Amino acid sequence: MPDDLSRRRMLSLLGCSAAAFPLATPMAFAALPSDNRLVVVILRGAMDGMDALQPYGDPDLERMRPGFDIGPGAGALDLTGFHALHPAMAPLLPLWRDGHLGFAQAVSTPYRGNRSHFDAQDVLEAGTAGDVPPLAGRDGWLNRLLPLMPGAQGRTAFAVGRDEMLILRGPAAHSSWAPDARLDMAPATADLLLHIYQDDALFRETATAALGLARATGNTEGRGTDALFAFAAAQLRQDARIAALSLGGWDSHRGQARQVTRGLTALSEGVLRLKADLGPEWDRTMIVAVTEFGRTAFQNGTQGTDHGTGGTMILAGGALKGGQVWGDWPGLAEAQLLDRRDLMPTRDVRAYLAWALHGLFGTDRSALASVVFPGLDLGPDPGVLA
């Protein structure tokens, strides 16, 4: 087993090397004493939930979006007779049929500010009641969860890159790694890394995965979404029980069809990669994909949509009681919209997250509503877990 000095020197070398390159997507892990797994995917840029899950049964939708392809007649896949799945998510249709895919409609954080991406993402990751958390002392809701988990630790988590996700920031032990950062390493350095960790099973496997990831992405600056989810699965097969990662590129002010298709294709491929790589652990895994806010009900003049409020949460995994859409539908008549422009939220997205944490890890409900998500009204259990 390598001595502490050698390990610190090598990690310092790796950290300095990786910090010199830009990264596209940060990822974080935490180890927990549980057989259940949680994967949180932040969809940065505000995904249009009414495009991913199209409420084509509402007659106002086509009126508000005449330039969009909507419903089964335009290639979407019918799910409930009211909702249709965007064609880019067609590979996930078998998961829906197996009860491993579901959606929560008309959700939002409590944020009601100026529809700023940055502020809304901070509120989403901080899990706060609506005000943008102050710069000093910001922490994330996953970090506040960890002290509530007896035996939680961060020894299987690694940080390589310059960014940190707010969702796991805080005093609780954790680490982060951006797996699609450029990791340029000479062959001799790679050999040295593997030699140092040869007798340490945990570090050897992680180092091997890191080097394989760098080779798989060709040392480029691309998003490497498949490698991103593959690396997450590798950690979740070991000691990690919570993974948090983000996918960017969801802002669709213009040319939304192209933008949303690209994003949903990447997300679908990532979910299927997790399923394939997790193997039997898939049955104990829940994936939640959330975004900072939804988009306007009306299309704009550039075949896109603008910043809105109510949106859609995507859930997947073998631990899910899926094949259904949760939440009340508020309607799209003008009087039913928020500010006469946005889908009206009917439930706090944090409530779904809290009930998932309660079911997966047994976290006390009062602690969820006061510590993890301060000021949250949990409301009734939506029944997202199998």
Automatic annotation (TrEMBL):
InterPro entries: DUF1501, TAT_signal
Pfam family, one: DUF1501
Signal peptide annotation: 1-30
Superkingdom, taxonomy of origin: Bacteria
Keywords: Signal
Keyword DNA-binding: no
Listed name of the protein: Uncharacterized conserved protein, DUF1501 family
Lineage: Bacteria, Pseudomonadati, Pseudomonadota, Alphaproteobacteria, Rhodobacterales
